[in-house]
Amino acid sequence: MLTIVHGKIKTMADAEYEDGFLQIEQGKITAIGNMAECPVQKGDTNVINAKGRLVMPGIIEAHCHMGITEEKKGMEGDDCNENVDPITPYLRAIDAINPMDAAFDDALRAGITSAMVGPGSSNVVGGQFVFIKTHGRCIDHMIVKAPAAMKVAFGENPKVNFSGQNVSPATRMAIAAMLRQELFQAKAYQKKRSQDQNQEKDFRYECWLPVLEGKIPLKAHAHRADDILTAIRIAREFGLSLTLDHCSEGHLIAEEIKKSGFPAILGPDMASRNKIEVQNMAFKTAGILHQAGVCIAITTDHPVSMIQFLPICAGLAVKSGLPPEDGLRAITINPAKICNVEDRVGSLEIGKDGDVVIFDGNPMEVFGRALCTIIEGKIVYRDENEDFLW
């Protein structure tokens, strides 16, 4: 059992405690409340004294490629895109993530305790994302949800990759058509499987069943307004769940996105505008979409921008119009909801995972530091200069 005492607890749910405690047992939050109700006493073991500092849920990265595009390793550590085939739904992120990548340590030091990780956007269909904790050596032990989403991509990236090989897709029309054809065939396979349970499984299409059954969303790489609308159109045609990832021109069609009911994962706005489709990328998009009533999360798209700067990206979105409380929500409870893991992470509530961070200030400010990062009740990072004795 681990108990945090004298914390300024921001649960990202309904309650806040100016002088509170939080208890974790067997990896789950078992108690939370005011210090007057705290069951532990001075001198008890496994107690962390937060000394009035901010205690909040672990930060969540809703879209990245950590461990798949590894730092400092070049081609040998880049397993992000299977560039020779535009349709690869059967690829699984869990088979490429290297937890030894330096990004995992950077994440822990920034208070990032979980992340949605998966293939890149060179293919029309890239493969299956996984939602993981950011601490561990064996990916199988870090999994929260797998598969967690099916990656699809619109716009420049598939066009550039395959037009250079003199094969489809070379146009946006072909990207949409190829995705429709794949979904059409997947639905036909689903129908046959439902009619005959003894039918032999097809590895190519079995991976689509969680998408078609509404258990996981399409995760759509879409920057430009027209690509965003094409993603929405196709999701509606096939009755699928969808997340709009990057959504760089979302502020130009905010009402259409709101009407769609689909959430947006925004970023990496800290990166350069090095492609035509990101020419209108700006931190203001978060505030505009939030004001329109869209559920938003913020991403670094690591390694496009570095994962440890995720809280700062939220702060820059606040600077550009997003309300401060919603800046924190965009890196905690909102991504948990968007990634369909809110039953475990995203807020400090009894029964949820004990993923907690103690900050010495606001994490969205440049000087805000994570002093102690806890995942499922285990201290996985602590500032060696800090004394948490009670």
Describe this structure in words.
There is one protein chain. The mean pLDDT is 96. The protein has 12 helices and 16 strands. 52% of the residues are buried. By secondary structure, it is an alpha/beta fold. The strands form 2 sheets. Strands 1, 2, 3, 4, 5, 14, 15 and 16 form an 8-stranded mixed β-sheet that branches. β7 and β8 form a beta hairpin. The radius of gyration is 21 Å and the shape is globular.
Q: From the helix content, strand content and strand pairing, which structural class follows?
A: alpha/beta
Overall geometric form = globular
Strand element count: 16
Low-confidence spans: none
**Percentage of helical residues?**
25-40%
Q: Give the number of helices.
A: 12
What fraction of residues sit in β-strands?
A: 15-25%
Rg is 21 Å
How is the biggest beta sheet arranged? 8 strands, mixed
Kindly report how far apart the N and C termini lie.
16 Å
Arithmetic mean of pLDDT: 96
Order of helices and strands: EEEEEEHEEHEHHHHEHEHEHEHHHEEE
